[in-house]
Amino acid sequence: MTRIPDAHKSPTVVAIRLARVWTYDADRRIGLPGGFGEVFEGRGDDGAAVAVKKIRPVSPGLATGEIKVARRLMQVHPDHVIPILDAGHDVHSGERYLVMPLAEESLQDRLMREGPLADDEAMAVLQDVLLGLHEMSGIVHGDLKPANVLFHEERWKLADMGIARIIGEEPTQPAERMFVTEPYAAPEQWRFETATRATDVYAFGCLAYAVLTGAPPFPGPRQEDFCRQHLDGTPRALPASPPVRALVQMCLAKEAGSRPSVETALILLERAWAKS
């Protein structure tokens, strides 16, 4: 992931206490500031390097929901989701934080540097992403995109649960609608409907396009263009084997009920990979 040091003469070290004590350097951001907060290079009380996300209070529902999802993930220890080391309110400032291990780079970084990925590498990336969604059973990510897929411990893992929610809990709809990523937003998100697991499958289809071609299926560039394209447009031809092309087309179905489940998509991807 891209480190962006600010032009300060000396580090500004901030100490926070969640379940454990952590510090971070406010002058060393990781990546660009996002809609839900900023990520900084930090350290644990054992000296280990970590990434510390300071959650921006965009909406009380979203901020609380991200902490709740993080704590759920801490209980299940998924292999294809970035581990959460700590999450909660700093006892001194009341600010909300997440603490994660440092990742090497994002999938967006990789695509910008290398362009479309070769067949085996592309299939491995897509398998990791689907395994991450499978391990998040019971959670809707809602903002799956290459920038939110990170390389850590020799595999790609899902990250950034800014608008994620636990299935069965009331979504914070007005705030959620404001923060979808236009090239990866499903038709139901453009219709202001509640995101579901099928929404993540659609975003996976867009991500697969980006992995295989270097760009998502619809070019925009304006918001109204993206809206029309996702609701009614047909993506350009995908340069992939027929089984992969068929899988991506199914994932990009306009109606959520016509898309495969995460588990079915994973089976179809593994079969397509075996035939390639």
Describe this structure in words.
By secondary structure, this protein is α+β, with helices and mostly antiparallel strands. It has two domains: 15-101, Phosphorylase Kinase, domain 1; 106-275, Transferase(Phosphotransferase), domain 1 (Orthogonal Bundle). The protein has helices at 60-76, 107-114, 119-135, 173-178, 187-190, 197-213, 223-232, 242-251, 262-275; strands spanning 3-5, 13-17, 21-30, 37-44, 49-55, 86-89, 96-101, 105-106, 139-140, 149-152, 155-158, 165-166. Strands 1, 2, 3, 4, 5, 6 and 7 form a seven-stranded antiparallel β-sheet that branches. It has a three-stranded antiparallel β-sheet with strand order 8-10-11. α3 runs antiparallel to α9 (262-275) and α6 (197-213) crosses α8. The longest helix is centred in the N-terminal third of the chain and has 17 residues, at 60-76. The radius of gyration is 19 Å and the shape is globular. It starts with a strand and ends with a helix. The relative contact order is 0.12.
Which runs of at least 5 residues are low in confidence (pLDDT < 50)?
Answer: none
Largest sheet: 7 strands, antiparallel
Radius of gyration: 19 Å
Order of helices and strands: EEEEEHEEEHHEEEEHHHHHH
Tally of helical segments:
9
Total domains? 2
Helix % is: 25-40%
Label the structural class. Answer: alpha+beta
CATH topology name of the largest domain? Transferase(Phosphotransferase), domain 1
Number of separate strands = 12
Strand content: 15-25%
Mean pLDDT level: 90
Shape: globular
Give the CATH class of the largest domain: Mainly Alpha
Examine the secondary-structure arrangement and name the CATH architecture of the largest domain.
Answer: Orthogonal Bundle
The CATH homologous superfamily of the largest domain is named Transferase(Phosphotransferase) domain 1
Calculate the terminal CA-CA distance, rounded to whole Å.
31 Å
